[in-house]
């Protein structure tokens, strides 16, 4: 059985098979981990480690920034006590440990919060693969998708995570290209879509992408036709209006991106999905909607280069 120990007083980390007795140096990044299985789970993201020391812990072992892939070990609380005294090997970063250990069989007592490998994850469907996980605390957190779960020879539960961030997908808005009177509404719709891509479940992501697409197209077309105020209509009507204004064979890719978002939307509605025999929106569908929204921004010239 794998063990992890966290010394809250120093932030130092210890690992081991029978107990967390071996110092890990340099100290790796360690953060709270929250499994997201339903929307309400987002409310379980801890405020701090001190408020929720019995939750799951993710210890990062590698991070590929270009691929947005993170690997590490997942732990769950061991026992029901916040801290326990463990005799550990002297830590190389602590000179005082070296002195104490010399007179104590090269061991020093530490008050650690102790964790073991997270077997709870293995009880989920597909051992958790495909589910989302939030790393961090409520004031600063990131969302990841579990793409692989493995158990090592040392009994560690090793995760491969892919970033669910919308960074690099939704381009930054070019404020100079957007009418000042419309910018507030455009920015609000953009922010809601971006926030959904970070934090919410697929149905909500598609909903916010559709809302943003309507906002973008209506305000963009207002400028195209020099209207005093934007026309308010749903996305399907805007797709037809763009075809009518520009012609059947123009703006095909643009209209297709709008159509993708529009066609995904009913899949998040139980009655529509049942009536049309559609499958449920999943993570990949939500990612497609976000990519389509980014394409729309680039097509109308509102993306900062």
What can be said about this structure in brief?
The chain is α+β, with helices and mostly antiparallel strands.
Explain how this protein is built:
The structure is a single chain. Helix 3 packs parallel to helix 7 (283-299) and helix 4 packs antiparallel against helix 5 (252-264). The chain is α+β, with helices and mostly antiparallel strands and 305 residues long. The mean pLDDT is 90. The termini are far apart. The protein has a 6-stranded antiparallel beta barrel. It folds into 2 domains: 3-163, no CATH class; 175-299. It is elongated, with a radius of gyration of 25 Å. It contains 7 helices and 11 strands.
Sum up the structure in keywords.
single chain; 305 residues; alpha+beta
Q: What share of the residues lie within helices?
A: 25-40%
- Figure out the total of helices: 7
Strand content: 25-35%
Q: What gap, in angstroms, lies between the N and C termini?
A: 51 Å
Written as H for each helix and E for each strand, in order along the chain, the element string is EEEEEEEHEEEEHHHHHH
What form results from the Cα inertia axes?
Answer: elongated
| Total domain modules | 2
Main beta sheet: strand number and arrangement?
Answer: 6 strands, antiparallel, barrel
Give the number of DSSP strands. 11
List low-confidence stretches: none
Strand order of the largest sheet: 4-5-6-11-10-9
Please identify the structural class as seen in this structure. Answer: alpha+beta
How confident is the prediction overall: mean pLDDT?
Answer: 90
Radius of gyration over all CA atoms, rounded: 25 Å
């Amino acid at each position: 059985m794998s063990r992890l120990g966290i010394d809250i007083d120093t932030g130092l980390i210890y690992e081991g098979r029978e107990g967390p007795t071996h110092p890990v140096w340099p100290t790796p990044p360690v953060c709270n981990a929250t499994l997201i299985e339903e929307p309400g789970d987002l409310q379980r993201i801890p405020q701090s480690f001190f408020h929720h020391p019995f939750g799951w812990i993710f210890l990062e072992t590698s991070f590929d920034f270009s691929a947005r892939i993170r690997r590490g070990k997942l732990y769950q609380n061991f026992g029901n006590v916040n801290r326990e005294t463990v005799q550990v090997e002297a830590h190389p970063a602590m000179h005082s440990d070296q002195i104490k250990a010399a007179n104590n069989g090269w061991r020093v007592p530490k008050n650690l919060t102790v964790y073991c490998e997270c077997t709870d994850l293995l009880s989920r469907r597909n051992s958790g693969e495909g589910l989302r996980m939030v790393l961090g605390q409520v004031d600063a957190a990131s969302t990841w998708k579990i793409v692989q779960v493995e158990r090592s020879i040392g009994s560690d539960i090793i995760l491969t995570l892919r970033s669910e961030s919308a960074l690099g997908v939704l381009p930054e808005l070019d404020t100079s290209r957007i009418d000042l009177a419309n910018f507030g509404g455009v920015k609000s719709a953009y922010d809601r879509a971006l926030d959904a891509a970070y934090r919410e479940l697929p149905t909500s992501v598609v909903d916010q992408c559709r809302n943003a697409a309507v906002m973008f197209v209506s305000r963009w077309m207002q400028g195209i036709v020099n209207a005093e105020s934007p026309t308010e209509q749903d996305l399907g009507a805007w797709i037809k209006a763009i075809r009518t204004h520009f012609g059947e064979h123009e703006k095909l890719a643009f209209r297709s991106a709008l159509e993708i978002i529009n066609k995904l939307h009913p899949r998040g509605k139980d009655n529509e999905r049942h009536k049309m025999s559609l499958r449920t929106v999943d993570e990949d569908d939500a990612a497609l909607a976000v990519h389509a929204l980014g394409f729309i921004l680039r097509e109308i010239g509102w993306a900062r280069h």
